[in-house]
Write a structure and sequence with these properties.
single chain, mainly alpha
């Protein structure tokens, strides 16, 4: 038997596509469906990215607000420290005692001697009477 050689003819594309299956290939899924899925996936990714961006911005705003509160709190604490130092100064206490309270400094200041335990040279006299009695006030 002899083989008959025929010239090459490309396959007819129209013959491979069945009637009623417009847009489908021989793999079963149409190119249009893959394209739609790709576009939907792309927009879903953009939506997730926008949501992440909103979360980052809101957290940054909260951080900035807390940082401002901390700064104002530190300034207020420094102001209060300065006020306490001013109110505790001995010159202010002396002027308030003399001015508003009518107190006067003593004419001479009595300096007490320092007593160290175990020092034999100086001894204190015991108190007279009962120091723990109720006494009269």
């Amino acid at each position: 038997m002899t083989a008959v050689l025929r010239p090459f003819q490309p396959p007819n594309v129209a013959s491979q596509v069945e009637v009623g299956t417009v847009g489908q290939t021989r793999f079963g899924v149409g190119v249009g469906a893959v394209g739609v899925l790709a576009v939907v996936g792309f927009f879903a990714c953009l939506l997730l990215l926008a949501n992440f961006h909103v979360v980052v911005i809101s957290d940054q705003l909260e951080f900035d607000r807390l940082e401002g509160r901390l700064k104002s709190g530190l300034e207020q604490a420094q102001t209060l420290r300065n006020e306490v130092a001013r109110l505790e100064s001995p010159d202010r206490i002396l002027s308030a005692a003399e001015g508003r309270l009518g107190m006067e400094p003593p004419p001479e200041r009595l300096q007490l001697a320092l007593v160290v335990s175990g020092d034999g040279g100086v001894s204190l006299a015991p108190p007279s009477g009962d120091p723990f009695s109720g006494g009269s006030r």
